[in-house]
Amino acid sequence: MLNHAIVSVALALATLPFAVQGAQLAARAQDPICEWIERAISSASNVYYPGDALYNKGVAHWATTADQVSKCVVEPGTAADVGMVLRIIGGTRTPFAVKGAGHSPNPKFASTTGVHISMYRFNNVTYDADAQTADIGTGLIWDNVYDALAPHGVNIVGGRVPGVGVAGFTLGGGYSWKTNQFGLTVDTLVAFELVRPDGKVVKVTHESDPQLFMGLKGGFNNFGIVTKFTLKTHPQPEVWGGPIQVAADQIDEVTDATVEWDATATDPKAQVMTTYTYAQGELHMTAFLFYDGPTQPAGMFDRFLAIPNHGSNVNTRPFADLVQSTPTGASYGFRGIFNAFSVLDTTRSLVDVVINETQYWGQQLSAKTGIITTYAVEPFLRSIYSHNTQQTAFPPTRSIPFLPFNIYYAWLNSTYDEEFYNAARVSTKVIVDAAVAEGQRGAADAPLYPNNAIFDTPINKVYGANIPTMRAVKRRVDPANVMGLAGGWKV
Ligand SMILES: Cc1cc2nc3c(=O)[nH]c(=O)nc-3n(C[C@H](O)[C@H](O)[C@H](O)COP(=O)(O)OP(=O)(O)OC[C@H]3O[C@@H](n4cnc5c(N)ncnc54)[C@H](O)[C@@H]3O)c2cc1C
Ligand SMILES: *[C@@H]1O[C@H](CO)[C@@H](O)[C@H](O)[C@H]1NC(C)=O
Ligand SMILES: *[C@@H]1O[C@H](CO)[C@@H](O)[C@H](O)[C@H]1NC(C)=O
Ligand SMILES: *[C@@H]1O[C@H](CO)[C@@H](O)[C@H](O)[C@H]1NC(C)=O
Description:
Elements: H1 2-15, H2 17-29, H3 32-40, E1 46-48, H4 53-59, E2 72-75, H5 79-92, E3 96-99, E4 115-118, E5 125-128, E6 133-137, H6 142-149, E7 154-155, H7 166-172, H8 179-182, E8 189-195, E9 201-204, H9 210-216, E10 225-232, E11 234-235, E12 239-247, H10 251-264, E13 270-279, E14 282-291, H11 302-305, E15 315-317, H12 319-324, E16 335-343, H13 348-366, E17 370-377, E18 403-411, H14 417-437, H15 459-463, H16 467-477
Parallel strand pairs: 2-4, 3-4
Antiparallel strand pairs: 1-2, 5-6, 6-10, 7-11, 8-9, 8-10, 12-14, 12-15, 13-14, 13-17, 16-18, 17-18
Helix pairs in contact: 1-2, 3-5, 9-16, 13-14
Organism: Cyclocybe aegerita
Signal peptide: 1-22
Family: Belongs to the oxygen-dependent FAD-linked oxidoreductase family.
């Protein structure tokens, strides 16, 4: 009887388009908060529901570990509409998410089962030649920003590889090809346009509110939703550099070159990053070389250039082209996790531990649908934290010249998520313990970069001594803890 009734209803719906449409409207009506938002926002903004193409775009992330099914996607088009959404969400205590470009692989950081806010429409880039700053919207990826600034011959301190979102990158710190020269992206911030949790749109500068300005420089979504950054610009000539792919038989040479670079480099226009990757049953390395000018000073990178390689894409080129030349390993659509581990020196013995970890976990995790296991060795100059006299939420200390190394794992089957997360925790601990054991004692206390740290990293490892100040700001701008309804790093 029951089956028969269901079949009848299904047949009735199938033959009556009007009824089907009615059923879809009924499904929409299931979420009154989304409907309320839809009615309250201006025509510059939209709400999308499951089944809409722009819903799928809105809830997508770089790594599928970060995906969740939300009730609706809100694409606000004005800061005032963001404020309206926050007022409705706060008043109804609705769980929500705010997504820049969705590049954090951490589950629930930019996703929700409630109302998902995607910032795509904040996509303007405005260069102010007099002030030597650029206003950039928080829905952009760095590729767009570099393309928009290139005609002006200027650039800002931003992302190194294609596709990365400006919002999370900038709100968490920002390690760039230009960091040896200018510090982190947070060190180049002049102002924020912030939608406070009470819905008010405010401009935040050091002068207007030094503590909130400090908190936003590393504090992600703790204090509201940022709609615009004003960042310092710098003249951008053509640059020299790109990636060199090196096979396992040259591991000693590329490692010794990296270790020597770390011990001897002094030119802030130059930068090197070496990654150790296990994929398809093999270990291989990529050395990324960068010089902020059209030619490398004679001899500077000779040791890297002399290594027999199986792919080199090192050239004089526009900055945006250098960014596009950088292979990112596994790209969109895999399960993924990063973890951060900070060390103080790139010694040969420590990199040997990194290499062993790459190989060991690469092999272990291949059996669990692992497809790529990468460890990045990033020998920045020890002066990178000296480019800002103002306090920033991250890094919480500028007196430890730590290097923000990181790992990235990608895999296919969600059954193994916990095993990958656990490996990422265990492996970083092995390396930091090894650093401490070889005399890098400060490594144990060095901050962990929140854009790379795994989701359950203790908050004091990220913000350290800044936590009391950040909490005071939080109590002031968000007494009802509206932002606590969204995921991410929470003070
Ligand atoms: C391939 C790849 C390469 C990378 N390379 C680098 C690198 O070279 N240097 C580096 O420093 N980092 C790098 N990262 C890390 C990167 O900085 C982070 O993943 C960053 O969070 C990406 O920003 P997003 O806007 O895409 O983040 P999302 O995943 O969208 O958001 C991250 C967090 O920021 C919050 N957030 C987003 N937008 C807003 C907003 N408008 N207001 C308030 N809070 C907001 C979210 O709620 C979430 O908690 C890389 C990541 C990937 C995947
Ligand atoms: C982007 O710039 C255009 C043109 O100035 C403006 O109309 C629009 O409101 C801006 N969008 C945002 C989100 O600021
Ligand atoms: C390699 O790493 C694994 C896992 O951390 C460890 O058990 C093993 O002893 C290491 N091997 C060497 C030679 O260090
Ligand atoms: C994931 O792994 C589990 C356990 O081995 C298996 O049962 C399942 O079929 C796998 N899923 C996919 C999509 O391969």
